[in-house]
Amino acid sequence: MTELVRYAFEDLGASRIEAFTDEENAASRAVCQSVGMQLEGVMRSERITPTGVLRNTCIYAAVRGGA
Questions:
Q1: Which of 12, 19, 32, 42 is 20 to 30 Å from 59 by CA-CA measure?
Q2: Is pLDDT above 90 for 65?
Q3: pTM of the predicted structure, to 2 decimals
Q4: Where does it sit, as one GO cellular component term (predicted)?
Q5: What is the CB neighbour count within 10 angstroms for residue 62?
């Protein structure tokens, strides 16, 4: 994932990268944090599973230059 972030910023010229992950998906959240993304917020009861359970979604982001 680190290479993907580098590619987005350096080769594609992106100024911002976002990732959306289920609040309970610890592995995905750890990956986001490991590449320097910061938690920007949690959308509560943002989606519903096929079994009818409401789930929260975490929004992670990284910006060019780390600002």
A1: 12
A2: no
A3: 0.88
A4: cytoplasm
A5: 19
